[in-house]
Amino acid sequence: MPSHISHALLAESCITSLEGDPRNIPPGVFPDTPHLRSLAVLGAQGPDIFLHNHRRKPRAFRYGAILHRKGNARILAHLALSARESREEAPRSGFPLHLRELAAFSLGYISHVWLDRLVHPFVNYRAGWRGVPDKHPDRPAMHAFLERIIDVQLLRLLRNQSVQEYRFLDRISPRRHQLVSFRKSVARAIQDSLRSAGDDQELERRIANALYDSLSYYRFTESPGADYFVQGRARERAGIITSRWLSVIHPPEELLILDGLNLDQLLWKHPCDPSRTSNATVPTLFNRAMTRTLEDFSLWAALALGEGSAEKLIASLGEENLNDGISCDPPCRKIHCEPLPLLSLYYQIKTAFDK
Protein backbone atom coordinates (compact mmCIF):
# COMPACT_ATOMS: atom_id res chain seq x y z
CA MET A 1 0.00 0.00 0.00
CA PRO A 2 1.66 3.28 -1.01
CA SER A 3 1.37 5.29 2.18
CA HIS A 4 -1.45 7.63 3.08
CA ILE A 5 -0.03 10.92 1.81
CA SER A 6 0.66 9.56 -1.68
CA HIS A 7 -2.91 8.26 -1.81
CA ALA A 8 -4.27 11.61 -0.62
CA LEU A 9 -2.21 13.46 -3.22
CA LEU A 10 -3.67 11.34 -6.01
CA ALA A 11 -7.26 11.90 -4.88
CA GLU A 12 -6.67 15.64 -4.65
CA SER A 13 -4.97 15.69 -8.06
CA CYS A 14 -7.97 13.91 -9.56
CA ILE A 15 -10.34 16.50 -8.07
CA THR A 16 -8.23 19.34 -9.48
CA SER A 17 -8.17 17.65 -12.89
CA LEU A 18 -11.96 17.25 -12.91
CA GLU A 19 -12.40 20.92 -12.03
CA GLY A 20 -10.42 21.81 -15.15
CA ASP A 21 -11.91 19.13 -17.41
CA PRO A 22 -15.22 17.61 -16.20
CA ARG A 23 -15.05 14.80 -18.81
CA ASN A 24 -18.84 14.98 -19.28
CA ILE A 25 -19.38 14.28 -15.57
CA PRO A 26 -21.98 16.63 -14.02
CA PRO A 27 -20.27 19.05 -11.61
CA GLY A 28 -22.89 18.11 -9.00
CA VAL A 29 -21.00 14.85 -8.50
CA PHE A 30 -17.65 16.55 -7.79
CA PRO A 31 -16.27 16.78 -4.23
CA ASP A 32 -16.53 20.56 -3.97
CA THR A 33 -16.90 21.10 -0.20
CA PRO A 34 -14.45 20.44 2.65
CA HIS A 35 -16.65 17.58 3.88
CA LEU A 36 -16.75 15.90 0.47
CA ARG A 37 -13.04 16.43 -0.12
CA SER A 38 -12.31 14.78 3.21
CA LEU A 39 -14.39 11.80 2.10
CA ALA A 40 -12.38 11.60 -1.12
CA VAL A 41 -9.15 11.53 0.90
CA LEU A 42 -10.70 8.92 3.20
CA GLY A 43 -11.73 6.82 0.21
CA ALA A 44 -8.21 7.17 -1.16
CA GLN A 45 -6.97 5.13 1.80
CA GLY A 46 -8.98 2.21 0.44
CA PRO A 47 -8.84 -1.04 2.44
CA ASP A 48 -5.75 0.22 4.26
CA ILE A 49 -8.25 1.75 6.71
CA PHE A 50 -9.11 -1.77 7.86
CA LEU A 51 -5.45 -2.69 8.31
CA HIS A 52 -5.08 0.07 10.90
CA ASN A 53 -7.87 -1.44 13.04
CA HIS A 54 -5.84 -2.99 15.87
CA ARG A 55 -7.39 -1.59 19.04
CA ARG A 56 -11.15 -1.25 18.86
CA LYS A 57 -13.28 -4.39 18.69
CA PRO A 58 -14.91 -5.90 16.76
CA ARG A 59 -12.12 -5.47 14.25
CA ALA A 60 -12.26 -5.15 10.47
CA PHE A 61 -8.61 -6.09 9.93
CA ARG A 62 -9.32 -9.26 7.94
CA TYR A 63 -11.29 -7.27 5.36
CA GLY A 64 -8.18 -5.22 4.66
CA ALA A 65 -6.29 -8.38 3.75
CA ILE A 66 -9.14 -9.77 1.66
CA LEU A 67 -9.70 -6.55 -0.27
CA HIS A 68 -6.04 -6.32 -1.17
CA ARG A 69 -6.64 -9.57 -3.04
CA LYS A 70 -10.09 -9.21 -4.59
CA GLY A 71 -13.52 -7.64 -4.58
CA ASN A 72 -12.86 -3.94 -5.11
CA ALA A 73 -14.50 -3.59 -8.52
CA ARG A 74 -17.71 -5.19 -7.27
CA ILE A 75 -17.75 -2.98 -4.16
CA LEU A 76 -17.40 0.16 -6.25
CA ALA A 77 -20.21 -0.95 -8.55
CA HIS A 78 -22.45 -1.55 -5.52
CA LEU A 79 -21.64 1.92 -4.19
CA ALA A 80 -22.65 3.42 -7.53
CA LEU A 81 -25.94 1.51 -7.43
CA SER A 82 -26.54 2.76 -3.88
CA ALA A 83 -25.94 6.29 -5.10
CA ARG A 84 -28.45 5.71 -7.91
CA GLU A 85 -31.04 4.50 -5.39
CA SER A 86 -30.60 7.63 -3.28
CA ARG A 87 -31.21 9.80 -6.33
CA GLU A 88 -34.29 7.84 -7.37
CA GLU A 89 -35.70 8.20 -3.86
CA ALA A 90 -35.29 11.98 -4.00
CA PRO A 91 -35.63 12.89 -7.69
CA ARG A 92 -36.29 16.58 -7.06
CA SER A 93 -33.08 17.13 -5.13
CA GLY A 94 -30.89 16.54 -8.19
CA PHE A 95 -27.76 15.40 -6.43
CA PRO A 96 -28.65 14.40 -2.85
CA LEU A 97 -25.92 14.57 -0.23
CA HIS A 98 -25.74 10.79 0.11
CA LEU A 99 -25.01 10.42 -3.61
CA ARG A 100 -22.34 13.10 -3.40
CA GLU A 101 -20.75 11.45 -0.35
CA LEU A 102 -20.60 8.10 -2.11
CA ALA A 103 -19.20 9.76 -5.24
CA ALA A 104 -16.43 11.49 -3.30
CA PHE A 105 -15.51 8.33 -1.42
CA SER A 106 -15.61 6.23 -4.61
CA LEU A 107 -13.40 8.66 -6.53
CA GLY A 108 -10.82 8.30 -3.78
CA TYR A 109 -11.25 4.53 -3.58
CA ILE A 110 -10.77 4.10 -7.33
CA SER A 111 -7.56 6.13 -7.09
CA HIS A 112 -6.35 3.83 -4.30
CA VAL A 113 -6.92 0.76 -6.44
CA TRP A 114 -4.89 2.10 -9.35
CA LEU A 115 -2.04 3.58 -7.33
CA ASP A 116 -1.60 0.32 -5.42
CA ARG A 117 -1.60 -1.79 -8.57
CA LEU A 118 0.89 0.40 -10.41
CA VAL A 119 3.29 1.31 -7.59
CA HIS A 120 3.36 -1.87 -5.51
CA PRO A 121 5.49 -3.84 -7.98
CA PHE A 122 8.14 -1.10 -7.81
CA VAL A 123 7.98 -0.97 -4.00
CA ASN A 124 8.22 -4.75 -3.70
CA TYR A 125 11.17 -4.87 -6.07
CA ARG A 126 13.07 -2.07 -4.33
CA ALA A 127 12.22 -3.07 -0.73
CA GLY A 128 12.29 -6.86 -0.74
CA TRP A 129 10.13 -8.87 1.65
CA ARG A 130 10.37 -11.34 4.51
CA GLY A 131 13.38 -13.60 3.93
CA VAL A 132 14.27 -12.04 0.56
CA PRO A 133 16.97 -11.12 -0.34
CA ASP A 134 18.18 -11.73 3.23
CA LYS A 135 16.85 -12.85 6.58
CA HIS A 136 17.47 -9.58 8.38
CA PRO A 137 14.76 -9.19 11.05
CA ASP A 138 13.94 -5.68 9.82
CA ARG A 139 13.66 -6.63 6.14
CA PRO A 140 9.83 -6.93 6.29
CA ALA A 141 9.65 -3.35 7.58
CA MET A 142 11.47 -1.96 4.55
CA HIS A 143 8.29 -2.05 2.45
CA ALA A 144 6.51 0.43 4.72
CA PHE A 145 9.72 2.42 5.16
CA LEU A 146 10.13 2.91 1.40
CA GLU A 147 6.48 3.90 1.06
CA ARG A 148 6.98 6.67 3.60
CA ILE A 149 10.12 7.83 1.84
CA ILE A 150 8.01 8.02 -1.33
CA ASP A 151 5.43 10.08 0.58
CA VAL A 152 8.05 12.60 1.68
CA GLN A 153 9.75 12.90 -1.70
CA LEU A 154 6.58 12.91 -3.81
CA LEU A 155 5.03 15.60 -1.61
CA ARG A 156 8.11 17.76 -2.06
CA LEU A 157 8.12 17.18 -5.83
CA LEU A 158 4.40 17.82 -6.42
CA ARG A 159 3.60 20.46 -3.80
CA ASN A 160 6.98 21.68 -2.57
CA GLN A 161 5.75 20.93 0.94
CA SER A 162 7.00 19.02 3.94
CA VAL A 163 4.87 16.48 5.77
CA GLN A 164 4.40 19.05 8.52
CA GLU A 165 3.21 21.71 6.05
CA TYR A 166 0.80 19.33 4.30
CA ARG A 167 -1.23 18.70 7.49
CA PHE A 168 -2.77 15.41 6.47
CA LEU A 169 -5.09 15.25 9.46
CA ASP A 170 -6.82 18.45 8.37
CA ARG A 171 -7.67 16.73 5.09
CA ILE A 172 -9.19 13.50 6.44
CA SER A 173 -11.48 14.55 9.28
CA PRO A 174 -15.00 13.95 7.96
CA ARG A 175 -17.92 15.00 10.13
CA ARG A 176 -18.59 11.74 11.93
CA HIS A 177 -22.23 12.48 12.73
CA GLN A 178 -22.94 12.64 8.98
CA LEU A 179 -21.45 9.23 8.20
CA VAL A 180 -24.17 6.90 9.50
CA SER A 181 -25.94 6.33 6.16
CA PHE A 182 -22.57 6.36 4.42
CA ARG A 183 -21.29 3.52 6.64
CA LYS A 184 -24.45 1.53 5.99
CA SER A 185 -23.89 1.78 2.23
CA VAL A 186 -20.25 0.73 2.50
CA ALA A 187 -21.18 -2.21 4.74
CA ARG A 188 -23.89 -3.33 2.33
CA ALA A 189 -21.50 -3.07 -0.63
CA ILE A 190 -18.92 -5.24 1.14
CA GLN A 191 -21.55 -7.81 2.16
CA ASP A 192 -22.90 -7.99 -1.38
CA SER A 193 -19.39 -8.36 -2.83
CA LEU A 194 -17.58 -10.70 -0.44
CA ARG A 195 -19.06 -14.07 0.42
CA SER A 196 -17.19 -14.13 3.73
CA ALA A 197 -18.91 -10.90 4.80
CA GLY A 198 -22.45 -11.94 3.95
CA ASP A 199 -23.48 -12.95 7.47
CA ASP A 200 -21.32 -10.47 9.40
CA GLN A 201 -23.84 -8.79 11.67
CA GLU A 202 -21.20 -6.46 13.11
CA LEU A 203 -19.73 -5.19 9.86
CA GLU A 204 -21.03 -1.65 10.17
CA ARG A 205 -19.56 -1.40 13.65
CA ARG A 206 -16.27 -2.84 12.39
CA ILE A 207 -16.13 -0.12 9.74
CA ALA A 208 -16.67 2.56 12.38
CA ASN A 209 -13.94 1.07 14.57
CA ALA A 210 -11.55 0.92 11.62
CA LEU A 211 -12.21 4.59 10.88
CA TYR A 212 -11.57 5.65 14.47
CA ASP A 213 -8.42 3.52 14.79
CA SER A 214 -7.12 4.92 11.50
CA LEU A 215 -7.66 8.50 12.62
CA SER A 216 -5.84 7.66 15.87
CA TYR A 217 -2.97 6.17 13.88
CA TYR A 218 -2.70 9.20 11.61
CA ARG A 219 -2.81 11.49 14.62
CA PHE A 220 -0.07 9.50 16.38
CA THR A 221 2.23 9.61 13.35
CA GLU A 222 1.42 13.15 12.19
CA SER A 223 4.30 15.56 11.68
CA PRO A 224 6.96 14.01 13.93
CA GLY A 225 9.67 16.36 15.15
CA ALA A 226 13.15 15.69 16.49
CA ASP A 227 11.86 14.98 20.01
CA TYR A 228 9.61 12.26 18.62
CA PHE A 229 12.56 10.44 17.05
CA VAL A 230 14.74 10.86 20.13
CA GLN A 231 12.03 9.34 22.31
CA GLY A 232 11.33 6.55 19.84
CA ARG A 233 14.98 5.60 19.67
CA ALA A 234 15.30 5.68 23.47
CA ARG A 235 12.25 3.43 23.88
CA GLU A 236 13.62 0.99 21.30
CA ARG A 237 16.98 0.76 23.06
CA ALA A 238 15.18 0.19 26.36
CA GLY A 239 13.29 -2.72 24.80
CA ILE A 240 9.89 -1.04 25.15
CA ILE A 241 9.10 -1.03 21.42
CA THR A 242 10.36 -3.09 18.48
CA SER A 243 13.07 -1.99 16.08
CA ARG A 244 10.45 -1.52 13.35
CA TRP A 245 8.79 1.57 14.84
CA LEU A 246 10.53 3.92 12.41
CA SER A 247 9.04 2.17 9.37
CA VAL A 248 5.57 3.64 9.96
CA ILE A 249 6.79 7.19 10.61
CA HIS A 250 7.66 9.69 7.90
CA PRO A 251 11.45 10.01 8.18
CA PRO A 252 13.24 13.38 8.37
CA GLU A 253 13.45 14.74 4.85
CA GLU A 254 16.98 16.07 5.24
CA LEU A 255 18.29 12.55 6.00
CA LEU A 256 16.85 10.90 2.89
CA ILE A 257 19.89 10.31 0.70
CA LEU A 258 18.42 7.86 -1.80
CA ASP A 259 16.16 8.14 -4.84
CA GLY A 260 12.87 6.71 -3.61
CA LEU A 261 11.02 8.01 -6.68
CA ASN A 262 13.39 6.45 -9.24
CA LEU A 263 13.94 9.85 -10.84
CA ASP A 264 17.19 8.45 -12.25
CA GLN A 265 15.02 6.00 -14.23
CA LEU A 266 16.95 2.91 -13.22
CA LEU A 267 15.61 -0.35 -14.64
CA TRP A 268 13.42 -2.39 -12.30
CA LYS A 269 11.48 -5.61 -12.74
CA HIS A 270 8.10 -6.92 -11.74
CA PRO A 271 8.76 -9.18 -8.73
CA CYS A 272 6.26 -11.75 -10.01
CA ASP A 273 7.64 -11.82 -13.54
CA PRO A 274 11.22 -10.57 -14.07
CA SER A 275 10.64 -10.51 -17.84
CA ARG A 276 8.43 -7.45 -17.26
CA THR A 277 10.90 -4.60 -16.96
CA SER A 278 10.42 -0.85 -16.59
CA ASN A 279 12.36 2.31 -15.88
CA ALA A 280 9.21 4.24 -14.93
CA THR A 281 9.49 6.80 -12.17
CA VAL A 282 6.99 6.96 -9.32
CA PRO A 283 5.61 10.29 -10.69
CA THR A 284 5.04 8.54 -14.03
CA LEU A 285 3.17 5.72 -12.29
CA PHE A 286 1.23 8.33 -10.31
CA ASN A 287 0.10 10.02 -13.53
CA ARG A 288 -0.90 6.68 -15.06
CA ALA A 289 -2.96 5.95 -11.96
CA MET A 290 -4.66 9.34 -12.29
CA THR A 291 -5.56 8.65 -15.93
CA ARG A 292 -7.10 5.28 -15.06
CA THR A 293 -8.90 6.74 -12.05
CA LEU A 294 -10.58 9.47 -14.08
CA GLU A 295 -11.62 6.99 -16.77
CA ASP A 296 -13.22 4.68 -14.23
CA PHE A 297 -14.81 7.47 -12.20
CA SER A 298 -16.55 8.59 -15.38
CA LEU A 299 -18.04 5.08 -15.64
CA TRP A 300 -18.92 5.14 -11.93
CA ALA A 301 -20.76 8.46 -12.31
CA ALA A 302 -22.65 7.19 -15.36
CA LEU A 303 -23.81 4.15 -13.39
CA ALA A 304 -24.80 6.28 -10.38
CA LEU A 305 -26.84 8.59 -12.61
CA GLY A 306 -28.65 5.72 -14.33
CA GLU A 307 -26.80 5.96 -17.63
CA GLY A 308 -24.19 3.17 -17.38
CA SER A 309 -23.84 -0.49 -16.53
CA ALA A 310 -22.25 -2.24 -13.57
CA GLU A 311 -20.67 -4.78 -15.91
CA LYS A 312 -18.82 -2.09 -17.84
CA LEU A 313 -17.46 -0.50 -14.66
CA ILE A 314 -16.38 -3.86 -13.22
CA ALA A 315 -14.69 -4.85 -16.46
CA SER A 316 -12.78 -1.56 -16.64
CA LEU A 317 -11.67 -1.68 -13.00
CA GLY A 318 -10.68 -5.33 -13.35
CA GLU A 319 -9.96 -7.79 -10.57
CA GLU A 320 -6.18 -7.50 -10.37
CA ASN A 321 -5.09 -7.59 -6.76
CA LEU A 322 -3.63 -4.58 -4.97
CA ASN A 323 -0.52 -6.35 -3.68
CA ASP A 324 1.29 -6.74 -6.99
CA GLY A 325 -1.20 -5.79 -9.70
CA ILE A 326 -1.84 -9.24 -11.15
CA SER A 327 -5.05 -11.25 -11.48
CA CYS A 328 -4.03 -14.30 -9.52
CA ASP A 329 -5.56 -15.55 -6.27
CA PRO A 330 -3.67 -16.35 -4.17
CA PRO A 331 -1.03 -13.80 -5.23
CA CYS A 332 2.12 -14.98 -6.96
CA ARG A 333 5.21 -16.04 -5.10
CA LYS A 334 7.51 -13.08 -5.57
CA ILE A 335 10.80 -14.26 -7.00
CA HIS A 336 12.86 -11.23 -7.91
CA CYS A 337 14.02 -8.06 -6.18
CA GLU A 338 16.93 -5.64 -6.01
CA PRO A 339 16.44 -3.52 -2.89
CA LEU A 340 17.64 0.01 -2.41
CA PRO A 341 20.05 0.44 0.55
CA LEU A 342 17.11 0.90 2.89
CA LEU A 343 18.46 -1.03 5.86
CA SER A 344 21.58 1.10 6.09
CA LEU A 345 19.54 4.31 5.75
CA TYR A 346 17.11 3.01 8.37
CA TYR A 347 19.88 2.65 10.93
CA GLN A 348 21.59 5.84 9.88
CA ILE A 349 18.40 7.76 10.67
CA LYS A 350 17.97 6.00 13.99
CA THR A 351 21.51 6.60 15.18
CA ALA A 352 21.23 10.28 14.25
CA PHE A 353 18.92 10.56 17.26
CA ASP A 354 20.95 8.56 19.77
CA LYS A 355 21.61 10.37 23.00
Automatic annotation (TrEMBL):
This is Phospholipase C/D domain-containing protein. The lineage of its organism: Bacteria, Pseudomonadati, Spirochaetota, Spirochaetia, Spirochaetales.
